[in-house]
Amino acid sequence: MTSRRTVFRSLIAGLAAAGLAGAGALAQDRHQFDEETLATVHTLSEAALDSDLAYDITEDLTTKIGPRLAGTPQEARARDWAVEMLTELGFENVRVEEFELDLWTRGHSIYEEVAITAPFPQPLYATSLGGAAATPEGGLEAEVVFFASFDDLLAFDDAEDSLAGKLVFVNDRMVAGRSGEGYGWANRKRTQAWFHAEDRGALGVLIRSVGTSSNRFAHTGMMSRPEGRTATIPALAVSAPDADQIERIHDSGETIRVRLQTYAGWRGEVISGNVIAEIVGSEAPEEVVVIGAHLDSWDTGTGALDDGAGVGIVTAAARLIMEQGERPRRTIRVILFGSEEVGLVGARAYANARLQDGTLADHVIGSESDFGAREVWRLSSNVADHAIPFFDEMHVQMQHLGITRGPNSGGGGPDMLPLQMMGMPVARLNQNGEDYFEFHHTPNDTFDKIVPEEMAQNVAAWVMFTWFLADSDMDFRDPVDPEMSE
């Protein structure tokens, strides 16, 4: 009988052939890796394809800890779990760097009391967005003002027809895609609609869930806090089928009324933290290659794809490097960031701490796995021009995994953003996100969605990627102009 892993090896072989066919001519200044490096990375890649460590780590996290909302006791349990796991796997310098956090929770339940009361009474599946306020005690009921898009809300002239005393509904749909590029556009309503509605006197906001699922799950997520501003109105995401229902009733010309009772709110200051572990470099231990994921999740699911899978992938890749017995030249630092979902709080705390302790310049490059567990299909980068051939050749060596070369203008993942803005080069192994937003930020983000063979391909890519970066002496930053530094 043919194993699933053998089938997947055949699949990535086909993807690799397609990638080679479209790769085009290599640059004249092709980077050359030595034979020992190539032998090491390909041995590591083969070991990764036969390893279930990432899968086992993710299963353990999502089973023993479950949901891990930032700042809650569940996230604290996840930190304890991570410290124990990383220590048992043999990592060095395992530690927690704590930081303060404003705690938000939705209150009594995942799904609050939301229902159409007129013209056709029926319940709705909806859940509060992160940062939303509660309804007044006893709830509220109001007429719904329907906006087909977030842009329509932005263009709304309040002088013509006030929103005071009403509920705003915003209906933008998200379109699925491998790169997930539709998310940013659709997500504007989730992050910003609340204050545009609040400023116009609305009593609350409902949005079509930012996701691509047709299941009756609402997609939660954090709202923005411009200049530290806090919402004073409830804001909820409605499942796609329920948003369709609202749209149909609106199109019929009927006036819609909705009743809400929610319990969300800010609960005060608590402690969160980043969990850090290392493989100390053999020749340049002060030079740090960061590989990361985030440990927290939303409270509605068990955070298997977002981002338990990333925790498993980067940890397993680093562990495989330890197992092969030779330390890379540079230090590999695994960071499991806390409180990512509520505004990259852990990532900002880590970057600010490195700025204060003077080690920011020692961070030679960084990347994060935070887009599920489907196969890696592209290697992108954001490095100095002189380092592009290094990544071009890295891609050549990774083509057997079905990976194409992406642009030199991308990011390194959400938690890399603060470090990137402070000057750290970044790169990313882009995963297939065609169905990621079926599950993202919903109760359906659970362990059963992970395919072991696809996760193994991720680890194979990450272990090659990490060794290439950590065993190199390449400077990925632009050289400093002496005249500019004076």
What does this structure look like?
The protein is of the alpha/beta class. The protein folds into 2 domains: 4-102 and 269-470, 3-Layer(aba) Sandwich (Aminopeptidase); 107-263, Glucose Oxidase, domain 1 (3-Layer(bba) Sandwich). It has 14 helices and 16 strands. The strands form 3 sheets. The protein has an 8-stranded mixed beta sheet with strand order 3-2-9-5-6-7-8-4, with helices on both faces. A 5-stranded mixed beta sheet has the order 1-10-12-11-13, with helices on both faces. The longest helix has 20 residues, at 304-323. The protein starts with a helix and ends with a helix. Mean pLDDT is 92; it is low at 18-28 and 481-486.
Structure in a nutshell:
With 486 residues, the chain is of the alpha/beta class.
Task: Give keywords.
486 residues; alpha/beta; Aminopeptidase; Glucose Oxidase, domain 1; eight-stranded mixed β-sheet; five-stranded mixed β-sheet; 14 helices; 16 strands; 35% helix; disordered C terminus
Succession of helices and strands: HHHHEEEEEHEHHEEHEEEHEHEEHEHEHH
CATH-assigned fold name of the largest domain: Aminopeptidase
The tally of beta strands, per DSSP, is 16
- Return Rg in Å: 24 Å
The strand order across the widest sheet is: 3-2-9-5-6-7-8-4
Low-confidence stretches: 18-28, 481-486
Q: What CATH architecture of the largest domain would you give?
A: 3-Layer(aba) Sandwich
Tally of separate helices: 14
Q: Helix content range of the residues, please?
A: 25-40%
Oligomer: single chain
Number of domains: 2
